[in-house]
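Hi L., both proteins are below.
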Amino acid sequence: MRGKVARAVKRLIAFALVWVALVVVAPGAHADEGAALADAAQSSDPQVAADALYRMAEAEDAAGDFAHAVQHYRAAVTRLPSFRYAPKAMTRASQLEAHSEGDYRPFARLDAVRRDPKTSDDAAAIDSLARDAEGFPPGPTRGEARMVCADAYLARLHRRADGEAELRRVTDDPKADPLLRRQAAVELLDALLDDGNLEGAREVTESEGKLLDRKQARRIVVASRRRWLHRGSLVVLALFGLLAATAVVRASLRGALGGVWSALRGGAWYALAYAAWLAIAGGGFASAYETGNAEPFYGFAATLLPIAALARAWSAAGSRSAPARVVRATMCATVVLAAAFLVLEAINVQYLEGFSL
C-alpha cells in the first residue's frame, strides 16, 4: 500500500514539474523550460516521460524544428504506446516525415505562410511563395505550396490566370500527392467553367482524364448545352420583341393603335394580379423551407410584366387568322421559358442543375 502511495506521489511531483515548465516559468526562459521537460522525459514513470516527450515535440514542431519533433513524437509513443496522445503523435510524425524533402526547409517555408493569416491576402507574400516553390525539390511540399498559391490567387487576389497556372503545375507534378492532384484537376475545371472557357475545360478533361471521373467530365457537356440555351434564349427574347414591335408599328400605320392601347389597359390588371400572385404565393412557399429562396419567383414575376404587355399588344395589333394566332401562342410560350431560364441562370446557376442544364 505504501509503495502505491509513493509511486502516486512521485507521479504527481513529476506532473507538477512538467506543468511548472510549461505554464509557470516566465516567458523567455525557454532554456530552463526545455531542461525541465528533458528531465521529465527521463522519468521512470512511462506516463510522465511520454507526456514530456510529446510536449517537447509540440514545442519543436511550433518552432519549425521538425526533425527533432519527429524523433520526440515517436519516442513518446515508444515510451508508452497507450498514452492518450499516441494516435495524434504518430499521425503528426508521419505527416512531417512525408514532407522531409530538402531537410524540411521547403516545408518550413510553406508552414510559415500557413501559420500567418496575413499572408493569405498579401499578393507579394503569395508571389514569393510561388517563386520559391519552383525551386523546391520533388515531393508533396511543392504541390501543397502551389495549391496554397492557387487558392489565394483564385479566391482572394482575383488573379484567375495565375491561379489556373498554379493548378496546372500541380496536376502536372508526378511527385505531388495523388489526392491533391485530383483536387487540383477538379478546381481547375471549376475555374475554367466559371470563366466560360469551354475549350480550356475540354483540354483539361482530355489531358487529365485519369484525375477526373465521368461526373466531372460530363459537366463540359452540360456547360456547352447551357451556353447554347443562353444564346438561344437571348435570340428568342429579341425575336419576340421585334415581332411584337413590328405588329404595333403596322397597327399605328393603319390607324388602329387605339385598339392596342385599349387591350393594354384591359389586360394590365390581369397581368399585375398574376405577377403579384406568383411573387407572393411562390415566394412564400419557397421561403417556408429552410433552404428555400424566393428570389427566382420575384425575378420571374418581374420579367412576366413586360412579356405580358408585349404579348397583349402583339395580339391586339396582329392578324386574327388561325395560323397567326398559333404562331403568337407558340412564341409567347417559348419566350416565357427563355425568360425563366435566364432568371434562374442569373440568380443561381445551381437551380438549373435539377433540369440537367
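That was the first. Here is the second:
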Amino acid sequence: METYEVNKTLMAVLSALLVVFASKTVLDIAYTEHKPEKPGWALPITEVVAKSKEPAAPFDASKVVALLAKANPDSGQDAFKKCLSCHTPQKGGPNGQGPNLWGVVGRKPGSHAAFPYSEAMKSKGGEWTWEALATYLHDPKTAIPGNKMAFPGIRDDAELADVLAFLRKQSDTPAPLPQ
C-alpha cells in the first residue's frame, strides 16, 4: 500500500509542474510578440507621388490614330491575347462572348451576323473608323453606354495603336492607314 501512496504523491507533483509550465508556455505564446529577425522581403519604394486633385485630361483619339503609322501589329497581336477570351480574329471564326472581329475596321457597329448585340450597340450607327475604334477600345463603357462589353479598356495609347494595327491586318482588304 505504501508504493501506491508514493505513486499518487509523485503523480500529483508531476501534474502540478505540468500545469505550471504549460500555462506559462501558453501565456508566452499568447502575449509575447515574436518579430522576425529580418523581414521576408524589402519593397523598393523609390518615391511617393501624391495624387493630384485635377481631373485627368480627356482621351484624344487623334493621338492614337497618329501613332498608327509606326504601330507594330505583332505587338498588337500579343496585346490582343487578353481579348481572346471573348473574341476571335480569324476569318470565319466563331462568335464567343463577343463577336468575331475579322474585318471590323470599316464595319457598321452591331452588324456582325448571328451575334446578339445590346440595343446600345445596335443603335450606335456609323462605322468603325480608326477614331471610333480607338475611343471605344480606350473606354467601352463611356464610349457606348449600355453596351455589354465588360472589358475595362486599353489606357496606353501605344498599346492601343498596336492593337488597331493588328485588327487592320485581320481583313481580306485591310483599311488604309489614316494620313
